[in-house]
Specification:
Blueprint lengths: L1 H15 L1 H19 L16 H4 L1 H8 L1 H15 L7 H8 L4 H24 L6 H21 L3 H29 L2 H33 L1 H4 L1
Length: 224
């Protein structure tokens, strides 16, 4: 929830002022740090088996052996690597769409708003069949809306493209996370989830680095 609502709130606060966004973030971080100390310490269980290299890489081995899980993670990985439009939103707001801080806030909030709408809809209408085909279709739409945002010079169209981009990405995330939880055995689920989180976090950062580097070399619009 926080990963979806956070960008929306941050974007709207940035529309008010950069100081408001960063001050609110600092206050919430300090509050979270203080609340950590109120969490009671649970009883710890001593592990009976010593960790080995085999157990360390169990998640990687399982993902490599299960082509369905590998395909779902890899598909999302490459889609995000070739996107990275969020890293260039300040450039679009200033140089292409001619928007101020409030406009940048709207651009930053749009993907989260689209994701929230889809998440609410999926809560009451879970996907039951043809998950693979649906995921492929929405990944393709994710790419199409990324391109639409990249070439758009109209404010409302850019905001709509970003909202639809966030909506289609939520479908992909929903299917991937559900697949990992249901397909993975209990004994390796934690390790597989850890590998998945590494892939997700790394792909987002590397995708934004790719977008920024290519924007410097070939221009903002071709980079997106």
């Amino acid at each position: 929830t926080a990963t979806i609502v956070g960008p929306v709130a941050g974007g709207l606060l940035y529309g008010v002022s950069a100081e408001a966004a960063y001050t609110t973030a600092a206050i919430l971080m300090l509050a979270a740090a203080a609340l950590i100390f109120t969490i009671p310490k649970p009883a710890q269980q001593t592990a009976t088996d010593k960790p080995t290299m085999q157990t360390l890489f169990a998640g990687f081995r399982y993902i490599w052996g299960e082509k369905i899980v590998l395909g779902a993670i890899s598909l999302d990985l490459f889609a995000v690597l070739l996107s990275g439009a969020s890293a260039l939103l300040p450039v679009y707001a200033r140089d292409i769409l001619q928007l101020g801080p409030w406009g940048l806030g709207l651009l930053r909030s749009a993907p989260g708003i689209g994701a929230i709408c889809v998440a609410v809809w999926l809560a009451g209408h879970p996907l039951r069949d043809h998950a693979g085909k649906i995921m492929l279709g929405f990944v393709a739409l994710f790419g199409a809306f990324t391109v639409l945002f990249g070439v758009s010079t109209i404010t409302w169209l850019s905001i709509a493209a970003l909202a639809l981009l966030g909506a289609t990405d939520m479908f992909s995330v929903y299917i991937r996370e559900t697949l990992i939880q249901l397909w993975t055995p209990d004994e390796v689920r934690g390790r597989v989830n850890a590998v998945n989180q590494v892939f997700v976090g790394a792909s987002n950062e590397v995708g934004e680095f790719r977008a920024g580097t290519m924007a410097a070399l070939i221009g903002t619009v071709p980079a997106v």
